[in-house]
Amino acid sequence: MIKDVIGQRYAKALYEIAEEKENVMELYKDLKAVLDVYTENEEFSNFINHPELTKNDRKKMLFRTFKENVNEESLMFLNYLIDKERLIYLDSISKEYLKIYYTKNNIIEVDATFSIEPNEGQKSRLKEKLKKMTSKEINLNVEIDKTILGGGILKIGDKIIDGSLKRQFEMLRTNL
């Protein structure tokens, strides 16, 4: 709960600064890149948050890791989080920033799960149908899960549309 409140507060402040400096998209890309490394590399996140690591060492590590990939303002923000001992909330801050970005730019994130990888044409058609259905731009994340057997599962916000064969077989079994 406190994580969400802190994330919202810092994300809102960062977004307002980004709007003033007209680099919302650049900060969005930077935060996404940092978040990807932070969440996908457990060793990195454990190391950077290690209690025995000094603030200066954390700053140096972040600078070395991200200096080529993110702008100076993003690095300054990360340093600020380190100074305020809020780096552990980076995940929450980044997610809240992305929510603000999506809301202000009329974008919705859709998680789609299929048993096999859809081709580009199928992805494009799905995005167009979802765009008509939601009246929003679609950010489509595709995952593969062979256990669903066929069909697909869509997660749109807090709604789940389960059109998987696995679910249909389960429903058939309970009805028989």
Overall description:
The chain is 61% helix and 14% strand. With 176 residues, it is an alpha+beta fold. The protein has two domains: 102 residues, N-terminal domain of the delta subunit of the F1F0-ATP synthase (Peroxidase, domain 1); 69 residues. It has a four-stranded mixed β-sheet. The protein starts with a helix and ends with a helix. The relative contact order is 0.12. The model has no long low-confidence stretch (mean pLDDT 92).
* CATH level-1 class of the largest domain: Mainly Alpha
Q: How are the strands of the largest sheet arranged?
A: 2-1-3-4
What's the tally of helices? 8
Distance between the termini: 43 Å
Strand-and-helix sequence, N→C? Answer: HHHHHHEHEEEH
Largest sheet: 4 strands, mixed
User: What number of structural domains do the residues give?
Assistant: 2
Radius of gyration: 20 Å
For the record, the CATH architecture of the largest domain stands as Orthogonal Bundle
Which structural class should the secondary elements be placed in?
alpha+beta
